[in-house]
Write a structure and sequence with these properties.
The chain has helices spanning 6-33, 53-70, 80-100, 104-120, 142-159, 166-184, 190-210, 219-237, 248-252, 254-269, 282-288, 293-314, 320-344, and strands at residues 36-37, 49-50, 127-128, 136-137. It is an all-alpha fold. Helix 1 packs parallel to helix 13. The N and C termini lie far apart (49 Å).
């Protein structure tokens, strides 16, 4: 049985501390360079807010991983190079979009290109578990299904990044679930769990500055990076096991999946492009019904949390793994809350 190691603990804590240190620098730089998100009819925030949170998230994740590699914590795993390189390219794509506002169709083309590269590097959905007989080998369908999953989840996280704290909370919860299931599923994937927990630490640091009222947004750079990481980690850690567990990511990522499906179908039925942004996502609907940002985030995050717990329970390992990981996340959350309180103190 794969146990939580020193690398996992160090990964979460180092990523969190790096994020807390880097984010104020990014906020300062964004303000000086004018790289801020300005309110408009589609957005609900007030004032100019940095949209480069992805820089801090990506930097914290990559520096932490590099540090652990230097300490010889480097568990082998199929698709590792694809996850690291592909995630960095997706971050870069989002960063360019945050600065220059790329055309939606061109951005989708680049996402498909990056996902294709990742597929060729071994991040693949090769089989579908069949509870009624032998598993179904996808063969030529492996590529389009893998592509649909990676591009779909990547954009789904970007879609729900519309109110303070929502996307960060969903990514944090999903990272915990993916990490735990990757460690207890057979065959286990320590590298998936390690990267997921590093992402967890970086995202909790980001949430310190992103809860309402937000001081920074993750922007496309952070949302595309986080979505890509969740999609690929769910493949290498869960969907690639060839067991019934391969369906659990659909439960873990239920909120972003429902939102991207709802948004795309709604836009198509209205004769609009599914890539044109609007203010009719699930979280916008809650706000339109009179809920506050905080309450909307609480409701959607709670649903996401319940789905994650159910997914973990299904694996039959609701024991020390989930207790330890949730305890670690809770400690980092407390540090995040304390840090936020200190910043509010005059």
């Amino acid at each position: 049985m794969i146990q939580l190691t020193q690398a996992h603990i160090l990964g979460a804590i180092i990523a969190f501390l790096l994020g807390v240190f880097i984010i104020p620098i990014v906020i300062y730089f964004s303000d000086k360079a004018g790289l801020v998100d300005v309110p408009n009819e589609r957005k609900i925030h007030k004032g100019k807010i940095s949209r480069l949170g992805g820089i801090a998230i990506w930097t914290a994740v990559m520096l932490t991983f590099l540090f652990l590699v230097l300490l010889s914590y480097y568990p082998k795993g199929q698709g590792l190079s694809g996850i690291i390189v592909g995630g960095s390219l997706m971050f870069l794509l989002g960063l360019i979009d945050d600065i220059y506002c790329l055309d939606a169709k061109f951005k989708l083309f680049l996402q498909i290109t990056i996902s294709t590269m990742v597929f060729l590097l071994g991040v693949q959905i090769d089989t579908i578990y069949n509870p009624f007989g032998e598993d179904i080998a996808l063969v030529v369908l492996s590529y389009p299904i893998t592509l649909l999953w990676i591009v779909g989840i990547t954009n789904a996280i970007n879609f729900i990044d519309g109110i303070d704290g929502l996307a960060g909370s969903v990514v944090t919860i999903s990272s915990i679930a993916i990490a735990i299931i990757s460690m207890v599923a057979l065959p286990s994937s320590p590298i998936t769990a390690l990267v997921a927990i590093i992402l967890l630490g970086a995202m909790l640091a980001f949430l310190t500055f992103n809860y309402n009222p937000a001081k920074i947004f993750m922007g496309d750079s952070g949302a595309l990076f986080a979505g890509f990481m969740l999609s690929t980690l769910s493949i290498t850690g869960i969907m690639g096991t060839g067991t019934a567990y391969m369906y659990l990511p659909f439960l873990i990522l239920l909120i972003p999946i429902l939102d991207v499906a709802y948004s795309s179908i709604r836009r198509i039925l209205k004769g609009k492009s599914p890539f044109v942004a609007d203010a009719e996502h699930i979280h916008h609907k809650l706000l339109h019904h009179g809920l506050s940002q905080d309450l909307a985030v609480l409701i959607l995050s709670s649903i996401s949390f319940i789905c994650a717990i159910i997914a973990i329970i299904i694996t039959g390992f609701l024991n020390k793994y989930i207790i330890f990981t949730i305890a670690l996340a809770f400690i980092l959350f407390l540090l995040s809350a304390v840090s936020k309180s200190i910043k509010k103190t005059p």
